[in-house]
Design brief:
230 residues; mainly alpha; two-stranded antiparallel ribbon; 9 helices
Length: 230
């Protein structure tokens, strides 16, 4: 799953108003950020295979340190503890726990949503055994529709929990996030239905994915600052 993960970011932001939307964008994609970083180090592995599924051009070969359920739970606990230390200096204890818990939930949500779309390549344990996946990627149209519904639903929750007023009442604050989501939906059309480019390699695929996740998080952070939580 790609843009559907961001639905969780918007939903968590709607309920945890002190959390940074940019940080939540990083949280929901932390697992993939870790995966592509590890592939560049040749620790985890994937192969580019055109039309491996209807929705993807890659085979996820080995990823127990980023995508196993045990690893995801351990990473979420580790990030929770790190953020708790980093944030507590600036916020009350209750606010710190709320924000860090939201990020931890964002990380865990990645595995849960991936389980729906992946072929059986998601390990339960760090030894890369007991692989699971319901395989929705084998139906490109349903994959796209599910991600679109999730993302638009998350956006609606976010917009209903924020508003623009005073100096924040600008074109960007009114329509910026909606335009951003429309761009993501357009990008996902290419992602789900587009062909594998002859120039694509595992290295540039990993680098472009990492850059996209970071850029999307920066945009989300900037646009969120244009709105005020209710």
């Amino acid at each position: 799953m790609f843009i559907g993960h961001y639905a969780v970011s918007f939903a968590l932001k709607a309920t945890q108003k002190k959390a940074s939307l940019g940080l939540l964008f990083i949280g929901v994609q932390f697992v993939d950020l870790l995966f592509f970083s590890l592939t560049l180090l040749n620790i985890e592995k994937f192969n580019l295979i055109e039309n491996y599924t209807e929705s993807t051009h890659f085979q996820l070969e080995f990823m127990p340190y980023s995508h196993s359920l045990v690893a995801v739970l351990l990473w979420s606990i580790a990030i929770f503890l790190v953020l708790k230390v980093l944030i507590k200096k600036e916020n009350e204890q209750s606010e710190t726990i709320t924000v860090t818990m939201a990020v931890a939930m964002a990380i865990i949500s990645h595995w849960c949503l991936d389980l729906v779309v992946h072929t059986p390549d998601l390990p339960l344990f760090i030894d890369n055994t007991h692989l699971y996946g319901f395989g929705l990627w084998n139906n490109a149209l349903l994959t796209y529709i599910l991600e679109a519904i999730l993302l638009v639903g998350g956006l609606c929750m976010y917009l209903n929990s924020t508003y623009k007023s005073g100096i924040n009442d600008t074109v960007v604050s009114r329509y910026g996030m909606i335009i951003f989501i429309l761009v993501l939906l357009a990008i996902n059309i290419i992602n789900v239905f587009g062909p594998l480019s002859p120039e694509d390699t595992k290295i540039n695929t990993a680098v472009s994915a990492l850059m996209a996740y970071i850029v999307f998080a920066i945009i989300a952070f900037w646009l969120d600052r244009k709105r005020v939580s209710k």
